[in-house]
Structures are given as structure tokens and as C-alpha cells.
From TrEMBL:
The keyword Membrane does not apply. This is Type I restriction modification DNA specificity domain-containing protein. GO terms for molecular function: DNA binding. Belongs to the type-I restriction system S methylase family. Keywords: DNA-binding, Restriction system. It comes from Methyloceanibacter methanicus. Pfam families: Methylase_S. It comes from the Bacteria. PANTHER family: TYPE I RESTRICTION ENZYME MJAVIII SPECIFICITY SUBUNIT, TYPE-1 RESTRICTION ENZYME ECOKI SPECIFICITY PROTEIN. One of its GO terms (biological process) is DNA restriction-modification system.
Length: 254
């Protein structure tokens, strides 16, 4: 029923000016190719195997995405009990935050620059306000406290906070993961609309290891990121393969 021929037949028989539709009777009378049962089972097995590969690759991407926190904990320990006795500093001595600039989806002009809201990219625009590598923190709503790093020059909306480092010796990659580990959402106001602000997070302390250790952490995260990109590329290939197999199956070409 997802084949192009079936859809085209239904479109031809649709009636109605403002909202074309087909009746239940037309759908019930429509004919579709029905191969023998053994052939149906063969096709189903091929599609199931392709779908299994797709889901396994998706899980691998998810697991690699979680690896950053594991690397952080392995190298520096849990910040809550600081087993390695690392220096701790309040965020207010390391960063300052400012609200992004309002930009509704209606006013986005579909350019090439990503628009970051409270939980990452929510659209694209033809202007940018911050450079690549800017740390962004969700400011308002259920995702307040979520941490992202812009992968390109970007626009940050007023649903997020822009992080500016006051201490250039703190590596951005390390700082972003330290902020994620700090779980900033727990410091949000608990009103009808959860809110994170500078005054709420500046007192929060994070671990500040030596620069050499921060750089070592950055190298490991870069390796992780390369693996993630590789897995995502394979996942996209599997998605395309699965879609192609579905189309060929419905055309009777599988």
C-alpha cells in the first residue's frame, strides 16, 4: 500500500476540492500484488534483517554518545565526592552567561546557519550571532540546563544562554562536559516554567584539572566523536538501504 503505483491510483480516484480524499469503498476495492506465502516470508525476512541492522547501528550511536560521561568519570572521578582531590572552582569565576536573541520559527529565513534553542538545533537562518565552538545552555522549559556546543557559526535564541569563558585556560571541550556532568537542570527555578540563570548556576562548583589533563580528555572526546560520525554515516546508509528494499519489495522487484 506504500507503493508508488497504489498511491498514484488513490490520488487519481480522490474527490473533493479543498480536501481531496478517497472513500473506504475505493480502498477496499483496490487491488495490490499478492505473491505466494513463501515469497511473502522471504521478503519479510529480508526486510526484518535490514531493520535489525538499522536498529543495532542506532543503538551503537546512542552508546557512543554516552561514552563522554564515562571517559570524564574515569579520568577525573565523580565531582560529587572528588576522589582524586582535584581543584574545584565556582562557575562564576570561569564563565559568564548571557541570553540569546529572540527568533521565532516563523521569522527563520531557512539559511545555512543552525538556530539553537533550549535543546539544540531547531531550525536554520541566514544570519548568525555566535562563532563555531560556542557553548550553549538551555535557559527555559523542560530542557533547561541542557548543554550543546555549536558545530558551526550559529544563532542562539532567547530560550538558551550563551557561555563566554572568563578564564581562557579552561578548554572548551572539557568545560562543556563538566557542565553536562554538573546536571544544571537541578538548579532551575521550580515555577510553572523552569528557568536557569547565571545567578542560579554561578555558585555551582566544577572540577578543574591541569591543562595537560584537559587536553588529554579533549583528544579522547575527539576520537569518540570520529567514531560517532562514522557510525552515523553507516546508519544513514542502512536507512537508505532499508527504504530501497521496501520500495523494491512493493514493486515486486526483490
Amino acid at each position: 500500500m506504500q507503493s508508488r503505483k497504489f498511491v498514484a491510483d488513490m490520488v487519481k480516484q480522490a474527490t473533493g476540492q479543498s480536501y481531496p480524499a478517497v472513500s473506504d469503498k475505493i480502498v477496499k476495492l483496490a487491488q495490490i500484488p499478492l505473491p505466494p506465502l513463501h515469497e511473502q516470508n522471504r521478503i519479510a525476512a529480508i526486510l526484518d534483517n535490514a531493520d535489525d541492522l538499522r536498529r543495532l547501528r542506532g543503538r551503537a550511536v546512542d552508546r557512543l554518545g554516552e561514552l563522554g560521561q564515562a571517559i570524564f568519570c574515569e579520568m577525573f572521578g565523580d565531582p560529587r565526592n572528588n576522589p582524586k582531590g582535584l581543584t574545584k572552582r565556582a562557575l562564576g569565576s570561569i564563565i559568564k552567561v548571557s541570553s540569546g536573541e529572540g527568533l521565532t520559527s516563523k521569522n527563520q529565513r531557512h539559511g545555512t546557519y543552525p538556530v539553537y534553542g533550549g535543546n539544540g538545533i531547531n531550525g536554520y537562518h541566514d544570519e548568525f550571532r555566535v562563532p563555531e565552538g560556542t557553548i550553549v545552555i538551555g535557559r527555559v522549559g523542560v530542557y533547561c540546563g541542557a548543554v550543546h556546543v555549536t558545530a558551526a557559526p550559529a544563532w542562539v535564541t532567547d530560550n538558551a544562554l550563551i557561555v563566554t569563558k572568563k578564564d581562557a585556560s579552561i578548554d572548551t571541550t572539557y568545560l562543556a562536559d563538566a557542565l553536562r556532568y554538573a546536571n544544571l537542570n537541578q538548579y532551575a527555578s521550580r515555577s510553572a516554567q523552569p528557568l536557569v540563570s547565571g545567578s542560579r548556576i554561578y555558585p555551582v562548583e566544577i572540577l578543574v584539572p591541569e591543562a595537560a589533563e584537559q587536553n588529554k580528555f579533549k583528544s579522547r572526546i575527539c576520537e569518540r566523536n570520529a567514531l560517532v560520525e562514522n557510525e552515523r554515516a553507516h546508519l544513514e546508509q542502512l536507512e537508505a538501504l532499508f527504504s530501497s528494499l521496501q520500495s523494491r519489495a512493493f514493486r515486486g522487484e526483490l
